[in-house]
Design a protein that fits this description.
ACP_syn_III_C; multifunctional enzyme; four-stranded mixed β-sheet; single chain; Thiolase-like; binds oxa(dethia)-CoA; 332 residues; five-stranded mixed β-sheet
């Protein structure tokens, strides 16, 4: 069976920069607390009327297509990972398809939050492996800033999240020892409500009530300590799984692209895996946590900065709401 490879990467972030100091003006928080606990210095927020989840994804996709030397019309499929779609339905994949001027190729939305992009990459990889499609666009894009609780009540979540997008174009690899070597996907629904936006969901007779708004159940909730504990276990586990499957050791990794959840989590993984800091990509200080966009955004910047070269062993890993977690090992 053939492998797929990442033929091009791209990203897009909205222009508006929001610093920790800016957040100090609207809630009881401090630059010091945010930097110390998360490593975040600033994040981007979308501009209404200019940015949407779908068109930010399209901007990232255009860059990925250019880098792959392909036209949008060469694409066979779109896979769009997001937890913040433009509409409740339809998904953002069809909107991106329209934005790119494409007709009839399939568009699939993936809802796996922080591991959404790695899940989506795995889905695209399977379609190429089976020979069903050749050129698959995989996008992660999020607008969080329109759905956060900016009162002090929501500060543990709101200071973390930012808006952004990233994309890759998958094509068939020339050989089976290059490209995506394997992907590894996991979930544990036991903890579904520990990191979730509960309302407006379908299980209540009235989907949206004043009470939901007043009580803040329309905003994301996170049991930060619990998520943190699971994250620091699952990240190393799923990275090891990918390495073992392919007969590699942690020291063989040239670049680790972890989901950018918290600098403390990234540093923990780096130390636990015995990797030097230059082998672990981090851009959380600039963008915060952009959920499904975080891995492709970090990957795209790593490529742009010349930190990944042909032949490198690249590992992506993510953990988040669901809980879901995933990894991908790539020979670049
Ligand atoms: O991307 C999906 C996966 N997500 C993650 O992996 C995130 C995992 N969790 C975390 O990164 C951390 O748990 C947080 C950054 C969310 C929180 O850090 P923490 O060190 O776990 O803080 P905490 O929730 O235990 O809160 C410590 C204190 C509390 O005050 P008291 O009770 O000690 O007086 C909070 O009320 O910090 C307070 N606090 C804040 N203070 C200033 C919580 N948020 C803030 C804030 N500014 N934004």
């Amino acid at each position: 069976m053939r492998n797929s490879k990442i033929a091009g990467v791209g990203h897009y972030v909205p222009e508006k920069v929001v610093t920790n100091k800016d957040l100090e003006q609207i809630m009881d928080t401090s630059d010091e607390w945010i930097r110390e606990r998360t490593g975040i210095v600033e994040r981007r927020y979308f501009t209404e009327g200019t940015d949407t989840t779908a068109n930010m994804g399209a901007n990232a996709a255009r860059m990925a297509l250019k880098n792959a030397g392909l036209e949008a019309s060469d694409l066979d499929m779109i896979i769009f990972a997001t937890l913040s779609p433009d509409y409740v339905f339809p998904g953002s994949g069809v909107l991106l398809q329209r934005e790119l001027g494409l007709k009839e190729i399939p568009a699939l939305d993936v809802r796996n939050q922080c591991s959404g992009f790695v899940y989506a990459l795995s889905v695209g990889d399977q379609f190429i492996k089976t020979g069903m499609y050749n050129n698959v666009l995989v996008v992660g894009s999020e607008i969080h800033s329109s759905g956060l609780d900016f009162s002090t009540r929501g500060r543990n979540v709101s200071v973390i999240f930012g808006d952004g997008a990233g994309a890759v174009v998958l094509t068939p690899s020339e050989s089976t020892d290059k490209g995506i070597l394997s992907t590894h996907l996991h979930a544990d629904g036991e903890f579904a409500e520990e990191l979730a936006t509960i309302d407006p969901g379908s299980k209540k007779k009235d989907r949206l009530t004043h009470q939901m708004i007043d009580e803040g159940t329309i905003f994301p909730y996170m049991n930060g300590n619990m998520v943190f504990k699971h994250a620091v276990t699952r990240f190393p586990e799923v990275i090891e799984e990918a390495l073992n499957k392919n007969g590699y050791k942690a020291s063989d990794i040239d670049m680790l692209i972890p989901h950018q959840a918290n600098l403390r989590i990234t540093s923990y993984i780096q130390q636990k895996m015995g990797l030097s800091p230059d082998k672990v990509m981090s851009n959380i200080h600039k963008y915060g946590n952009t959920t499904a966009a975080s891995v492709p955004l970090a990957l795209s910047e790593a490529v742009q900065e010349g930190r990944i070269k042909e032949g490198d062993l690249v590992c992506m890993a993510a953990f988040g709401s669901g809980f879901t977690w995933a990894s991908a090992l790539i020979r670049w």
